[in-house]
Amino acid sequence: MKIACLFTALALMALTAPAAAMPDLDDDAMAERLAACAACHGARGEGVPGSEYYPHLAGKPAGYLFAQMQGFRDGRRHYPQMIYLMRNWDDAWLARIASFFAAQPMVALQHAAPAAQSDADRARAERLVHEGDPARDLPPCASCHGPQLQGREPGVPALAGLPTDYLIAQLGGWMTGSRHSIAPDCMAQVVSRLDPTEVRRVATFVAGLIPEPETTALEASAEPLPLDCGGATHFDPARGVQP
């Protein structure tokens, strides 16, 4: 599956170009222009049924999507296919791509079935997701990502229903230092307080949560997040790229 995605992306690179080279595009034209993304993420970011790894993009905040694409381009994230695609794209085109996928409806798509989880492990994971662990200064996932893990504008992603392997890989990336966000990197702080068993428990639990129809990311709030997160406010469509 990963090899097929790479070949598809390479074959369709001719469909992409910097934003300055293109006129305004409607949704259908954008979907065609972004055909290189479809093999892994779905034509409109809805994901690929049965995928064991690739995340859905539809409905995630534009700021988050922008920051991740910029991260692949600028060296904060490391995945060959994405690095190859992003390497020549400017911020204006990344912002247009991010806004396109953010405007698509969040879908209740089940990826590969999550692994079976005992009642005890599920309860432990659910407690970390919704209550955190004050003894370790560990905030609940829901305090940033929303009560349904639906994300928060402008830059906190939805997590519900992402593939287990993808979630483990991303949390593991922060744990090993191979993934970085814009400083201050709050996720690096969070993951440093978890052990590998907890990472797997939480990932398995979150992968089994399917967004309700018409779920959208929470609106931006003036209330501070429990930790300082540089990536959470790096790009706001209303204000553009922030320093």
From TrEMBL:
The residues that the entry says bind heme c 2 are: C141, C144, H145, M187
Q: Which stretch is the leader sequence? A: 1-21
One GO CC annotation: periplasmic space
Cite the InterPro entries for this sequence. Cyt_c-like_dom, Cyt_c-like_dom_sf, Cytochrome_c4-like, Cytochrome_c_Oxidase_Subunit
Pfam families, alphabetically? Cytochrom_C
Q: Which residues form the Cytochrome c domain?
A: 120-210
The answer to whether keyword Heme applies is yes
State where heme c 1 binds: C37, C40, H41, M82
Keywords assigned: Heme, Iron, Metal-binding, Signal
Q: How is it modified after translation?
A: Binds 2 heme c groups covalently per subunit.
Name this protein carries in UniProt: C-type cytochrome
The organism is Denitratimonas tolerans
Mind giving the lineage of the organism this protein is from?
A: Bacteria, Pseudomonadati, Pseudomonadota, Gammaproteobacteria, Lysobacterales
